[in-house]
Amino acid sequence: MPAVGLGVYQMPNGPLTQRAVDYALRCGYRHIDTAMIYRNEESVGKAIAAGFLPREEVFVTTKLWNSDQGYDQAIKASHASLNRLGLTYVDLYLIHWPVHGKRKESWRALETLYGEEKCRAIGVSNYLTHHLEELLGYCKIVPAANQLEMHPYLYNSRIETIDLCRRQGILPIAYSPLTKGAKLRDPLLVKIARNYGKSTAQLLIRWALQQGFAVIPKSSATARIAENFQVFDFKITPEDMVLLNGLDENLTTGWDPSDAL
Ligand SMILES: NC(=O)c1ccc[n+]([C@@H]2O[C@H](COP(=O)([O-])OP(=O)(O)OC[C@H]3O[C@@H](n4cnc5c(N)ncnc54)[C@H](OP(=O)(O)O)[C@@H]3O)[C@@H](O)[C@H]2O)c1
């Protein structure tokens, strides 16, 4: 999976998203992260179909929404996502959320879809330790990835889940890596970022990469889409990584799966 992808949450279905995806591909991004519930799969598909790159060079992730969980519903929902995207397969299909009582059948559906080559890899999102342990007890295919909210303000409190992923060969993907903007002016971040001549957004994306995560910052602004990809020309020192890792405050900027049974 390409290490840095463009997230398209809260971007409208239409030309804005299509242009943002096209621009991201021109900047060097090779991974686009959408979901049925973002309601913009069609625009993502149109940008890919426009053909700046061959389909095989773009890694496309989409997700199964909660109301579509269960075996038959999940199969149906995946076909609908593929239709909206205009694709014959996605590179990664994720269960968006660990819905109690439905997730086993949903996973079985993803295993079927994988066997039918409707998706090149299957994974989960928002699965904490107890959700993963349950899944590892019945799965035939171990998830390729677990997409979780992760940034220095939500790292130590997720460490048990991250370590489990690492031990099982499940790639952690950091979502909301920029804290949805909430912490971009944190004075410590500003100070560290300045030492590298980088923005705080670039520092947070680089932090995720150095943790070994894939990372999917969202922006709909061309300048920031480009900025967020300029993260391969510097390295955070081990000392600064320690400082950043110490910022944990169990900050969730979106849904908190700790409450999911
Ligand atoms: N699996 C899940 O449950 C789940 C949940 C949430 C998110 N996600 C995925 O993760 C992606 C990213 O997370 P997110 O959208 O929640 O938040 P995020 O990437 O942490 O932050 C996005 C916000 O930061 C701003 N921003 C982006 N680059 C910036 C920069 N260089 N300088 C200043 N501000 C900047 C954006 O504004 P502009 O657009 O105006 O630049 C936007 O307001 C989503 O788009 C989605 O694909 C997954």
Summarize the structure in short.
The protein has 261 residues and is of the alpha/beta class. It has ten helices and eight strands. The chain has helices at 15-27, 41-49, 71-85, 103-115, 129-138, 159-168, 187-196, 200-210, 222-227, 238-245, and strands at residues 6-7, 31-33, 59-64, 92-95, 122-125, 145-149, 171-175, 214-215.
Description:
With 261 residues, this protein is α/β, with parallel strands linked by helices. Helix content is 40%, strand content 12%. The chain has an eight-stranded parallel beta sheet. Helix 6 (159-168) links the parallel strand 6 and strand 7. It is globular. The relative contact order is 0.14. The structure holds NADP nicotinamide-adenine-dinucleotide phosphate (NAP).
